[in-house]
Amino acid sequence: MKQNGTGRAAFFMLILSCTAASCSLKYEKEMNFENASPELQFQNVRFMKYEGESLSAEIRAELLEQYKGDGKAYARNAHFKTWDKSGSPGSEGSCGLLGMNPQDELYTLFGSIELSSSDPEFSIRAQELKWNKKTQQLVSGQDSTVFLSRDDIEIEGKGFSASGISRSFSFSRNTAGTITADSGTESQSGADSE
Predict the structure, then answer these.
(1) Count of C-beta atoms within a 10 Å radius of residue 115
(2) CA proximity to 131, closest of 155, 111, 102
(3) What is the 8-class DSSP label of residue 30?
(4) What's the burial of 129, exposed, middle or buried (CB within 10 Å: 0-12/13-18/19+)?
């Protein structure tokens, strides 16, 4: 049996018209590609922030990108230090990726995070942390393990939260560590508060 070429063409046109009619591209909506590409990009950079005449923060990074629309910036392999208004050291640390949102005062840290502070004196190691400068809250993801140490305690757990205002911290689950009492004895504990 011989097939008709016009029948095939009609079938092809029917399929093509159904496909084209179901296309859902919105041509009237403009895309803003300015926010998707960095406005500024620096390699092996040292960035210093001053408040008034006092140095308040310093960031050294392998790569620093700043975006135009929202002012957000990202630093790869970042090392940072902060100082308070009197010029005393605040915190310092490093991470694989630092996301900075100065408009909302939110800072996210990812990958091999090491963070230390001199007042109060402590150090933290983690894989992901978020700092809210407005509320003075430092938190981890619920399933992210955080290691905290200071002169009298070494503890690890998940669901970490710390307040810069009350100077307290907590873990929501899978907590274990060592607390050194004033008498020089050590107490080891492990708890799961799921």
Answers:
(1) 21
(2) 102
(3) P
(4) buried
- Cα-to-chain-centroid distance, residue 142: 14
CA distance 163 to 144: 18
The C-alpha atoms of residue 54 and residue 158 are separated, in whole angstroms, by 37
Distance separating alpha carbons of residues 80 and 77, to the nearest angstrom? 10
Place of tokens 């894989």: 127
Nearest Cα residue to 126 out of 145, 105, 142: 145
Place of tokens 């590409």: 37
Q: For 97, left (φ over 0), alpha (ψ -120 to 50), or beta? A: beta
Peptide bond into 120 cis (omega under 30): yes
Is the pLDDT at 192 greater than 50, yes or no?
no
pTM of the model: 0.72
- State what percent of residues in the chain have pLDDT above 90: 51
Helix (H) or strand (E) holding 9, with range, is: helix 5-21
Q: Beta strands 54-66 and 73-83: pairing type? A: antiparallel
Q: Tell me: the pLDDT tens digits for 74-127?
A: 999 999 999 988 888 889 999 999 999 988 999 999 999 999 988 778 999 999
CB count, 10 Å around CB of 12? 10
- Angle at CA 120, nearest 5°, toward 101 and 166? 70
